[in-house]
Amino acid sequence: MDKSENNLVAWIAERLGKANASEDSLPIGIGDDMAMIRPGGAGVLIAADMLMDGVDFDSAIHEPERIGRKALAVNLSDCAAMAVQPRYALVSLALPNGWSMGQAQRLYVGMEELAKRYGVRIIGGDTNSWDKPMVIDVTVVAEPWPGVRPVTRSGMKQNDILVVTGNLGGSISGHHLDFEPRVLEAKWLAEKLGDNLHAMMDISDGLSIDAMRMCDASGSGIEFNRSMLESVASRSALAAAKGDPEKTLNHVLNDGEDFELLFAVDANAWTELRESPEGRKTISPHVSPRYTGVGRALHEPGVWLCNGMGIEKTPITAAGWQHFK
Q: What structural domains and CATH numbers belong to the chain?
């Protein structure tokens, strides 16, 4: 087996994490943005994310508040990916020996405002120190919203429309630290679309590799429309590309850390959502949602790029960010 993050996760899932359809206590196992357990019949979802100095942030230039905020936000993005309600968080730190008490406290200040906004209680964790760069790990516990089922990656159906929220690419300019997790947008989408919302995930490692993960989970493929992908390029991506269309597309597909949503929706339901003024309403005071149809689901596997739907189809290589490679 080749060394890669995807192969390691697949190996772990095969040995330890497969959900058993006959086992009600683990309806969703390893492979989605969160796992779901039912202790005593109540549905609980759990996810963990580890952030490392020099990889996910740079403590030499990024304020502790922004680092702490991101550490919680990436977990809330996992909750958005499955349209569930975040409730509790555990925070574990490996702090550099040289950090002061004030710096450590500022990490939590950065988490506090975001936690209050989404009704999350930080209930514990662990704190250690060492002579190496900082590591921060957050575990979030969530539950389904009333009347809303968790949305997985595995339900995409042929001819579904693939939709993204917001803009993609260029996150290194600051978006990766300051993004707003799409928790409320995901709740609204799940309520509005119901069973017509077939699959969803957040775009954390890059659209190209995350789309491939949705394809693998659903046993199908995706055909992206080039012009629609270019239309969702962020200002930072456009500035970095300096007018080069190929570079713009590369930023959109592969930059990663956008933390927007990618979801597959029934074509008729998408038409209704797109044409409804309600689809453009402000769901929270922090964001004004933008939804863009960027492709469609195929029966054949793989991720493809077309100049127009079905025209000059070429394969997209799954790039973006990969750990353990």
A: 8-144 (3.30.1330.10), 161-315 (3.90.650.10)
